[in-house]
Amino acid sequence: MKRKLVILGAGESGIGAALLGKAKGYEVFVSDAGSIKEQYLKELQDNGIEFESGKHTTEKALQADLVVKSPGIPEKAELIQKLRANGNLIISEIEFAAQFTNAKLIGITGTNGKTTTAMLTYHILKTGGFNVGLAGNVGTSFARQVLTENFDWYVLELSSFQLDDSYELKLEIGVLLNITPDHLDRYDNDFQKYIASKMRIFHLVHLGRHAVYWQDDTQIGEGIAKATYGLNAHPFSLSGDAAEITYIQNDRLFYVPNGIEVSAPRADISIKGLHNALNAAAAGNAALVAGVSPEALLEALKTFKGAEHRLEPVRELDGVEYINDSKATNLDSVKYALDAFDSPIVWIAGGVDKGNEYSLVNQLVQDKVKALICLGKDNSKLITSFENLVPTVKSTDDLIQAVRWAKELAEPGDVVLLSPACASFDLFQNYVDRGKQFKKAVLDL
Predict the structure, then answer these.
(1) Where does this one sit in the cell (predicted)?
(2) Could you name the CATH architecture of 4-91?
(3) CB–CB of 182/354 below 8 Å?
């Protein structure tokens, strides 16, 4: 009897899991409550995999020996509640794929900076000659790569939702960047539950292997000793007040894992801003622990190209820099973005508010933002929060209009920054769609 594998969600991770499951002898059924993209439909049909779209058939799901769930499906969903009550095992695509590879795994999580840090870690390992793949929340799914590639190492970007549904993932190195309130709607509006979810990464690291974390983060600091018990700790910090800590000082980054000191001028790091220096501290730490040479690390820091939609330079026009930071869907990301520039900023923000407490960035906005363009269907909260702090505030639900206004308001030496602080679903499919439309509008100026 073949074991029954039910996959909920037919995006890249779901299809990857379906193909891997089929190859490993499971009877696979894919179910998506929405529509399935053309390319994925074709793959399911070509591989003779049974599927449904536009609904979830509860009876079929309840027959599963194993359920792989898309990270986008909340725990509160009725079907998930029924599966839990029925005793079905629900795991992430990451957990599922990890059973079928002997590669060493580096897992990276945090509220902000995951994508950049994962891409940078991958770039450093590749520069160092490692046979390495990049997966998780970024690029081709882990399951698909396990099926089609033969890598010795993987760098995995892991969201809290992926961690929640992983139990026996054996990480060689776990990296935790920071924890600030986000996705609280998925955690009963309880910040402690979200913190616990992020800290889970260290429970998934092999005993005796490695934990990399930001020592200055108060949410991490509280439970870190307990979470990393039995692991080799490699903290990074903004100050070098103890041995064995990677730290930033006098515009240099000092790496000190395993007692070897390697230092890099911050000016040599291709991605700018203090938050990116911290991302580089985390990525370099993990890479050195994995065995990359100091020479390869220093070379890679200079040659890295940042993540798309994360403080991504679009163009310079008439002495004005245009920056796409569409991935900044929470206030903490925006704080980092505003902090990264010394020039006056024309800030484009707005969308679906996630319960933001805008007063947290008042000082930064007052110091740096010369004009705010609110882009969303309902901009009232943004306008009320900043109309007394910013000389010029405009409001629209038209991206092209927003970009034209930004061009009129910006002077040579200024920065036009799309950093929304909000989700994108009022006007766009997702943050990628928003970022792409912004880039097109800027390039069309």
Answers:
(1) Cytoplasm
(2) 3-Layer(aba) Sandwich (3.40)
(3) yes
Region 61-78: what's the mean pLDDT?
91
List Cβ neighbours of 180 (8 Å cut-off, separation of 6 or more): 111, 112, 219, 330, 332
d(CA 43, CA 140): 15
111 is in an annotated binding site: yes
Topology of domain 97-303, per CATH? UDP-N-acetylmuramoyl-L-alanine:D-glutamate ligase (3.40.1190)
Average pLDDT over residues 56-68: 94
Distance CA 297, CA 264 (A): 9
Calpha distance 84→53 (Å, rounded): 22
Annotated binding residue 42: no
Which amino acid is residue 14, in one-letter code?
G
DSSP lists the bridge partners of residue 232 as 210
CATH 3.40.50.720, the chain: domain bounds: 4-91
Is 140 assigned a ligand-binding role in the annotation? Answer: no
- Name the pLDDT band for 283 (thresholds 50, 70, 90): very high
Please list the residue range(s) of the chain that carry CATH number 3.40.1190.10. Answer: 97-303
pLDDT tens, residue by residue, 85-144: 999 999 999 999 999 999 999 999 998 888 889 999 999 999 999 999 999 988 889 999
**Number of other CB atoms surrounding residue 411 within 10 Å:** 12
Give residue 234's pLDDT: 92
> Is 112 annotated among the ligand-binding residues?
yes
> For the chain, how big is the Rg over CA atoms in Å?
22
Range(s) for CATH 3.90.190.20 in the chain?
312-443
The CATH class given to the 312-443 domain equals: alpha beta
Q: Is 109 annotated as belonging to a binding site?
A: no
Q: Two tokens at 346?
A: 């024309």
- Cα–Cα dist 318/302, whole Å: 27
Q: Is 115 annotated as a binding residue?
A: yes
